[in-house]
Design goal:
With about 675 residues, the chain is α+β, with helices and mostly antiparallel strands. The protein contains 24 helices and 16 strands. Helix 1 packs antiparallel against helix 7. The radius of gyration is 24 Å and the shape is globular. It starts with a strand and ends in a 5-residue tail after the last helix.
C-alpha cells in the first residue's frame, strides 16, 4: 500500500487479525453511494474451512457482491487483479533470497510425483503447503524457520524421480548435477540453524539485528555501517555492501525487480480507462512512482490515493509495510484489490465523521492532540485478491498511508475487510473460546458477541487509532527513525489502546454504533477476549522464549502492563491449567487510559529509551513453560494457530471484438490448485 499500519492476525477476539463501470461521476463524500450490489445471501452449508496443515487452517474467501457489480467496475477489478498477481514474486524474493529457487524445486517435485516414495511425497506436499502459506520457510508470526521432516537422501531421491518424469529445475546451473543442486539447497531445507530467523529485532547480546535477520532487504550490511548514511530511497530499495560502499538497489522500472514492476505497470495502465477520475489520477501517480522510485513521487501518489474518497473500487499496490525490516524502514511489496461493501460501511464512516470528537477526548496530554483531524476516508470492503505481504495470510483492517506527514496534512484511508472477518468467524471452532474461558458465562458471551466486538474494535483501531495524535516537530514527521525497532509494535499498541479506551464510551451508543442496552456486554466480551489472547497467542511460538512479531508484542505488552499496574486482570489456575481472567472492566479501562497517555507521549517525543523499557519489561519475553502448557491444550483440541486464505478466482470473458465483455468469479476451494496456477505450473 503505498502506505499502512494494519491490524494483523488475532485482533478479532480469538482468530482474526488487525496492517490502495460506465462513466463514474465523483460525488462528494456525503453523497457517496458505492455502486456495489447487495450481497446474495450465502448458502447455509457453504464451506469455509478447507483443510488443516499442521497448525494452520486453510479457509476459502468469498466475495459475494462481485457478480452484481457493473461491467465497467468488473473490468477495472480484472486489470487490478492482474497487477496484484504480477508482483507476488517480489515479496517472495524480499522475504528470503532462496525463496524462489526453493519454491521451484518443491513445485516441480509435487507436479511430477510418479515413483516417489509415498511417505516422502506426503511430507514434501505438507511442507510445500506451509511454504505457500508463509511465503517461504519462515512462520509468518514467529519469524522462525521450519524445515522438512524427511531425510536429505530421501529428498534427493524425490528430486531425481521428478526429473525422470520430466521436471526441470530453473535453479540448476549449467553443467551442475542434480546431486550438486540438492546439496546447495540442503541447509535451506533441512538445517534450522542456517538463516534461522527472518526478522530478528531482539538478537542475543553482541549480535546485530540486520546480520541476525535472514530477509533479503540488506546484503552484507550491519546497523553500524548505516550510522551517518543518508538513504535516498528508505522505503523502496535494498541496501548492499559492495566492498565497503553502501549501494541502494532501487525498486523501479529499470532497477531491482524491473521485470515484475514493468508487468505491474502495464496492468495498472490498462485499468486507468475504467477508473473514476480521482482513481485514474492516483493510478497514474502510482505508475510514475514505479517508473522513478523517487520519494517525492511516492508522496505524490500517497496524496492522490488519499484524495480519492469515493471510488467504489480501489487497490493497494506497492512497497508499504515495514514489519519485516528489523529497522522498520524497508517496505514489503503487497497487492490488494477490493470494492466497497455498502451494507457494512455505515458504522465505519460514522466513526470517521466523528474523528475530531474522539481526538478531543483522548486521555493523553492535550499538546499531543490534533487541532483538526484531516480527511479520514473509511469503508467496509470486500476483498477480491490479496498477494505478497497481505496474502494468503491477511489482515482484517488497514489504515494508510504510513507517512506521518501525509496523514497529518492530507488524511488517511481506513478499511475493514468484511469478507475476511466473516471467513474467520465462520471457520472458528467454538471449542477455542471454551477452553480458555474461566466460566461458561464468559464463553457464552464470546459466542454471542465476539464477532461484533472484534469488528468494532478493528474499526476503531484503524479509523480513530492510527489516524490520531500529533508528534513533536523535532521528529520531522518520522518518529520511526528515532523509535527504530520498537516503532511498529508501539504504533499497533497505540491503536489497540485507543479502541479499547473508547469501547465503553457512551458516545458509541449516542452515534448508534452500538445498542445502548448491549454495550456493557460487548465491552465485557472484548476485554475478556483481549485478555485471553495474550495467553492463547503463545501457541504460535513453538520455540524460544520471546516474541518477534509486532502485533504479538503489542498485545502481550498491554495485558502484562495491566496485570502489573492495575487490578483488572487475575492469573488463575484450575486443574493444572492457567487462565487470564478479566475481573474489573472499569479498572481495565482506567489502566488502558493511563497506558495510552504514556504510549502517545513516547511516540510524540520519540522516547526510544522508554519504548525499549516498556517492551522489554512487558512485551517481548515470556515463560516457555506457560507456552508449552498452552500448546498442549490447543493440540489436544486440534485447534489451528493461524489461518491462510484461498482467494477468489477471476476469469475475463471476451466478446467477438476481443474486448472484455464480462468477468466471472469462482472459488477454487483448493490451496494447491491456486498456488500452482499462480506460478504457471500444471496441477
Amino acid at each position: 500500500m503505498p502506505i499502512n499500519a494494519r491490524v494483523v492476525m488475532l485482533m478479532l477476539t480469538m482468530t482474526g487479525t488487525i496492517n490502495c463501470g460506465g462513466s463514474l461521476q465523483q460525488p462528494t463524500p456525503a453523497e457517496t453511494k458505492p455502486s456495489t450490489a447487495p450481497s446474495t445471501p450465502p448458502a447455509p452449508d457453504r464451506t469455509y474451512l478447507l483443510e488443516r496443515v499442521d497448525d494452520a487452517a486453510v479457509v476459502q474467501l468469498y466475495a459475494d457482491g462481485f457478480e452484481g457489480l457493473p461491467p465497467r467496475e468488473k473490468t477495472l477489478i480484472w486489470h487490478l487483479y492482474q497487477a496484484a498477481l504480477a508482483g507476488r514474486d517480489i515479496y517472495y524474493d524480499q522475504r528470503y533470497t532462496h525463496n524462489l529457487a526453493m519454491r521451484d524445486i518443491l513445485e516441480e517435485i509435487i507436479t511430477h510425483p510418479d515413483g516417489i516414495d509415498p511417505a516422502t511425497l506426503q511430507e514434501i506436499q505438507r511442507y510445500t503447503k506451509l511454504f505457500w502459506l508463509n511465503t517461504g520457510p519462515y512462520n509468518n508470526l514467529t519469524a522462525r524457520k521450519f524445515v522438512l521432516n524427511t531425510t536429505p537422501d530421501a529428498f534427493a531421491a524425490a528430486v531425481k524421480a521428478a526429473a525422470k518424469n520430466g521436471a526441470t529445475f530453473q535453479t540448476q546451473r549449467a553443467g551442475e548435477t542434480l546431486d550438486a543442486m540438492v546439496g546447495r539447497y540442503r541447509p535451506m531445507f533441512f538445517d534450522p540453524n542456517v538463516d534461522p530467523i527472518v526478522t530478528n529485532k531482539t538478537p542475543p547480546a553482541g549480535q546485530d539485528i540486520l546480520a541476525a535477520s535472514a530477509n533479503n532487504l540488506y546484503v552484507g550490511v550491519t546497523s553500524n555501517e548505516l550510522k551517518g548514511f543518508k538513504e535516498r530511497h528508505p522505503l523502496n530499495s535494498r541496501l548492499v555492501d559492495t566492498g565497503g560502499k553502501l549501494v541502494e538497489e532501487v525498486y523501479r522500472v529499470g532497477g531491482r525487480y524491473s521485470k515484475a514492476i514493468s508487468t505491474i505497470v502495464s496492468h495498472l495502465e490498462a485499468a486507468i480507462p475504467y477508473a473514476s477520475d480521482p482513481m485514474a489520477t492516483a493510478l497514474k501517480a502510482l505508475v510514475k512512482l514505479y517508473r522513478t522510485g523517487e520519494t517525492v513521487d511516492r508522496e505524490a501518489y500517497d496524496i492522490a490515493w488519499v484524495q480519492d474518497k469515493a471510488s467504489p473500487v480501489d487497490t493497494i499496490n506497492g512497497f508499504i509495510e515495514v514489519y519485516m525490516d528489523p529497522r522498520g524502514q524497508k517496505g514489503s511489496w503487497e497487492g490488494l484489490v477490493f470494492y466497497v461493501n455498502r451494507e457494512k460501511t455505515k458504522e465505519i464512516q460514522t466513526l470517521a465523521r466523528e474523528a475530531q470528537w474522539f481526538e478531543d477526548h483522548m486521555p493523553w496530554d492535550p499538546k499531543y492532540r490534533k487541532p483538526g483531524v484531516t480527511g479520514i476516508t473509511a469503508n467496509a470492503i470486500d476483498v477480491v485478491v490479496e498477494t505478497g505481504d497481505s496474502g494468503p495470510i491477511t489482515p482484517v483492517g488497514i489504515n494508510l498511508p504510513n507517512d506521518q506527514n501525509v496523514r497529518e496534512k492530507h488524511g488517511s484511508k481506513s478499511v475493514s475487510l468484511s469478507n475476511v472477518t466473516e471467513a474467520y468467524d465462520k471457520s472458528t471452532p467454538p471449542a477455542f473460546r471454551r477452553e480458555f474461558s474461566w466460566t461458561p458465562e464468559e464463553a457464552a458471551r464470546a459466542d454471542k458477541w465476539s464477532a461484533i466486538a472484534g469488528e468494532l474494535t478493528t474499526n476503531m483501531h484503524e479509523v480513530i487509532g492510527h489516524a490520531s495524535g500529533r508528534i513533536s516537530e523535532q521528529l520531522k514527521g518520522s518518529p520511526q527513525n528515532v523509535l527504530r525497532e520498537f516503532y511498529s509494535a508501539l504504533e499497533e499498541a497505540r491503536a489497540d489502546l485507543v479502541a479499547l479506551y473508547f469501547l465503553p464510551d457512551p458516545k458509541l451508543a449516542e452515534l448508534a454504533i452500538v445498542p445502548a442496552e448491549s454495550q456493557k456486554d460487548i465491552v465485557q466480551t472484548e476485554y475478556e477476549g483481549y485478555t485471553r489472547n495474550a495467553l492463547v497467542q503463545l501457541r504460535r511460538v513453538r520455540q524460544g522464549s520471546q516474541l518477534e512479531e509486532d502485533h504479538m508484542r503489542n498485545r502481550q505488552m498491554i495485558v502484562r502492563w495491566l496485570m502489573d499496574n492495575t487490578k483488572a486482570i487475575e492469573v488463575r489456575s484450575r486443574d493444572g491449567k492457567t487462565y487470564y481472567v478479566m475481573v474489573d472492566a472499569q479498572a481495565f479501562r482506567d489502566g488502558v487510559g493511563r497506558l495510552l497517555a504514556e504510549v502517545q507521549r513516547i511516540k510524540s517525543e520519540g522516547d526510544v529509551s522508554a519504548a525499549k523499557k516498556l517492551f522489554e519489561t512487558h512485551g517481548i519475553h515470556f515463560d516457555p513453560g506457560l507456552r508449552d502448557e498452552v500448546v498442549a491444550r490447543v493440540e489436544k483440541l486440534d485447534l489451528p494457530s493461524y489461518t491462510g486464505f484461498v482467494m477468489p478466482k477471476l476469469e475475463a470473458v471476451t466478446g467477438a471484438d476481443g474486448k472484455i465483455a464480462d468477468v466471472k468469479i469462482s472459488y477454487p476451494m483448493d490451496l494447491r490448485r491456486q498456488m500452482l496456477e499462480y506460478d504457471g505450473k500444471k496441477n
